[in-house]
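BUG: 3D viewer hangs when loading the predicted structure for this chain

Environment: internal workstation, default settings.
Expected: structure renders.
Actual: progress bar stalls at 90%.

Input used:
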Amino acid sequence: MARKLSQAGDSKVGCILWSLLLLVAGMIAWKAIPVKMASSELYDFMVEQAKWGATTPPEAIAKGIVEKARELGLPLDPKNVKVGRYGDKLRMRATYTVPLEFPGKTYHWDFDLQVERTIFQF
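Structure tokens produced before the viewer hung:
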């Protein structure tokens, strides 16, 4: 009996499409995951600063946040860092945009990190 050369479901197009989809997802992850990890590390640093911020002046905290962002490779402008005491609360806010460049498109990923913590004074 002769075998049919093209049977139903026997297509290479699906494999090619899934491979392209996997390649695009890998490229996005390659660019985005390090930025997200650095941003999370900066947020953790801000939370840590808020824990011990009762005795530190707000200007010193803001300067430390900018230095940490530079260390992590994040484009944080010192003008976009706000640190202040409001009653018994310490509030911090850092906003920045990270451009992620892909072939044919640049995506601007906006971050707005905010920390508010009650100050316990001894």
